[in-house]
Amino acid sequence: MPLTAALVAILFALLIGAVLAWLLARAGAARALEAARAELGTQLNAANQERAQLQERAARIPELQSRLGELESLRDQLVRDSGVLRESIGRVGAELAKEQDSLRVARSNLEETERVRDRHAAEANRLSVQAAELATQLDAERNQSQAKIAQLREVREELTSEFKNLANDILEEKSKRFTEQNRSHLGLLLDPLQKKLVEFQSKVETVYDNETRDRTALGEQVRQLMALNQSLSDDAKNLTSALKGSSKAQGAWGELILERVLESAGLRKGEEYDVQESHNSEDGERRPDVTVHLPEDRHLVIDSKVSLTAYEEYASGEDDEQRARALKRHMDSVRAHMRGLSEKRYQDLYGLRSLDFVLMFVPIEPAFMLAVTNDRNLFMDGWQRNVLMVSPSTLLFVVRTVAHLWRQEAQNRNAQEIAKRGAQLYDRLCAFVADLEKVGDRIGQAKDSFDAARDKLSRNKGSVIRQAEMLKDMGVKPNKALPPKLVELSADEDVASEDGEEGVRPIEGAAGLLPLGGDEAPQA
Questions:
Q1: This prediction's pTM
Q2: How far is residue 14's CA from residue 34's CA, in Å, rounded to a whole number?
Q3: Fewer CB within 10 Å of terminal CB in the chain, N or C?
Q4: Domain range for 310
């Protein structure tokens, strides 16, 4: 394009020059023509220079176009990079927003934790102060109590000594009777307590004995496992030929072997397990071969699957090729049983709190071992389908564990009963202690009543004993005599009250009481 424009400019300049020459020729002005020619020469030189520049620029056009392509590629790359950068910035912004939200939540949690810590610290300080106050109060009350106890002990010792010295003869018979009655009452209260303690000790010993016997029995049952396994294997071999032709017979035989394993583990039909029990599901009615009951109202479903025909062909194969084909059919049969059992979804049956998996029982131990040894992924594939393959030996361990769980459940119930009876025993003991405290209170009340009666009898002014002794001094002749200690005590108590007073004096030979008002005594 620049070269074409230059050529056009040159042609246009030549045209102008021709026109000017023609005009000058018509006008006849030679000098003007020369001047025009000079001008045209100048313009021609300028046009040549411009053409040279344009040619140089035209030579640089491919280079510029190449650079332009590179710049456009760089621009596209920058556009793509800017898009990626924009997406990265967006992701980083989103993550930053999440981090900011998490930081705000963490800051809020930290503030809440600090507030809770401050509250707890304040509460701890308050409790510390309260504890110190209570400790001080407790020390004061303890000191007061100790002082009161010491005082009461002194009073008790004094009263006890006085009681023993003054009332031994009077209360001897009553004390014996009271002791006998208390012994009888305490026997009535303590005998049931002793019986309960003996019963509690017996039950605890029974629990430990049962635990020891269970462990011994478990070891014996484990030792019997190999014999049972060999017996089951022999039974399987003997029945192989009879069961090859009937799938129904194979299923019945597998269920029979399954029940024998359950019974050998100590489980009872109708108690710890049920056979062919009907249950409903979303797809209709289902009848699992065996439903094992577990503690806490849980269940374990076991379904027997017999793969006998292909295994018998494998066992009786004459060459490796024949055994390989039979082995493939056997593995296909086992996997088909596994898929079918998984599709039944026994763990989703209504009315069952089943475990998340179902046990697939293979009654022929060698067939089971052949399958698991030739396909190492068989167990994992079954587990992913919620199906666990077991043989008679492995199932026996499982059901023995279930039986042990039931025994543990029974022992736990016994322990709960023991704890319940222990609580009742403790309550009875508390009641007995309360009654014994009441007996002590009654004894204290009886002692207070005795002290009051004793004061009226011998200590107070004008006591009964003193009046009786005065009557005796005045001439009353009783057949019996009061205890000397009581008489002396009554006389000592009455000495102070009689000092300086006129009393009643005995008159020899008189039968009555006459007051002495002066120095002269009345005469008979």
A1: 0.36
A2: 15
A3: C
A4: 209-422
